[in-house]
Amino acid sequence: MTFHVLTIFPAFFSGMLDHGVLGRGIRTGRVTVKIHDLRDWTSDRHKTVDDRVFGGGEGMLLKPEPVFAAVESIFPARDETKKVVLMSAQGRLFTQRDARRLVQSKEILLICGRYEGVDERVAEHLIDEELSVGDVVLSGGELPAALMMDAVGRLVPGVLGNEASTVQESFAETVEGVTLLDCPQYTRPAVFRGWAVPDVLLGGNHAEIRQWRHRAAREKTARNRPDLLRPDRNKEEVRT
Ligand code: SAH
Fold first, then answer.
1. N or C: which end of the chain has fewer CB within 10 A?
2. Is the distance from the beta carbon of residue 25 to the nearest atom of ligand 1 less than 6 Å?
3. Does the Cβ of 77 fall within 6 Å of ligand 1?
C-alpha cells in the first residue's frame, strides 16, 4: 500500500522511515511512502502556503489553493481505493478500528496542517475523512501522520514478522465483541527487586495461562480505560 503525505516540512519524515516495522515494510516493498512538499503547488515567487484568518484573530491558516492543487494532482481520479485524510484536532478520533479499515485502501493521502490549521473548505469539499489522534492540540499534522502510517502500515500483510501478534493486542476485539487492552506481560528475571512474576505464567498450563491473561486484561482495561467496557460503546462506533 502507498501513503502520500502532504506537508510543508518534508524533512520531518527523513530518518523515521528507515527504522522499525514501517522501515522494514518499506524495504520489503510492501509499503511505499511518498512525501510531497505543499510548496511545490504554490504559484507565487515566495511559495506562500498561508494567509490570515477571515474575521480576525491570531495566526495564519493554510490556504486552500495549494492543498486542492496538490490533492488533485496526486490523485487525478478519485475512487474507493484511495482515501484523503486531513489531520485535525477537530476530527473524529482515530482508533485501531480505523487502522483496520484504512489498511484496505490502496493509497492514502495524509494532509498535515500547520499554524492555526487549514481553510475549512478543505474539510468541506476535498477530503474523505477528518481524523484526530487524541484530545490534544499539536503544532502540526506531521506527528499525527507518522502515527497513522505506523498504525496502518504494521497491519499490511507481511509487514510484521508475526501476524498473530495483531490478533492478541490492545484494542483487538474479543469473541464477545468487546475491546480490551492487552494483558500485562513479563520477561526474565522471574523475580526482580523482590517483585515476582505471577506463578501461573511460569507453569506450562496453557488453559490456566489463557484464563489468567483474559482476566488480567479485563482488570487492566477496567482500571485504565473503563470507557472501553461501556456496553453501548460498540453500538456507538458502528453508527459513526
Ligand atoms: N486551531 C486548531 C489547531 C491547529 S494545530 C484547533 O484548535 O483545532 C495545527 C495542525 O496540527 C492542525 O491543522 C492539524 O493538522 C494538526 N493537529 C493538531 N492537533 C492534532 C490532533 N490532535 N490530531 C491530528 N492533527 C492535529
1. C
2. no
3. no
Q: Answer whether 88 contacts ligand 1 (Cβ < 6 A).
A: yes
pLDDT-wise least confident of 11-15, 118-122, 172-176, 233-237: 233-237
Residue nearest to atom 15 of ligand 1 (CA): 113
* Three-class secondary structure assignment of the chain: CEEEEEECCHHHHCCHHHCHHHHHHHHCCCCEEEEEEHHHHCCCCCCCCEEECCCCCCCEEECHHHHHHHHHHHCCCCCCCEEEEEEEEEEEECCHHHHHHHCCCCEEEEECCCCCCECHHHHHHCCCEEEECCCCCCCCCHHHHHHHHHHHHCCCCCCCCCHHHHCCCCCCECCCCCECCCCCCCCCCCEECCEECCHHHHCCCHHHHHHHHHHHHHHHHHHHCHHHHCCCHHHHHHHC
Ligand 1 and 129: CB distance under 6 A: no
Q: In a mutational test of the pocket of ligand 1, which residue from 88, 109, 122, 126 has the highest number of ligand atoms less than 8 Å from its CB? A: 88
Domains for the chain: give ranges and CATH numbers. 2-153 (3.40.1280.10), 168-236 (1.10.1270.20)
The predicted-structure confidence for 77-121, as pLDDT tens digits, reads as follows 999 999 999 999 999 999 999 999 999 999 999 999 999 999 999
**pTM for the structure as a whole:** 0.95
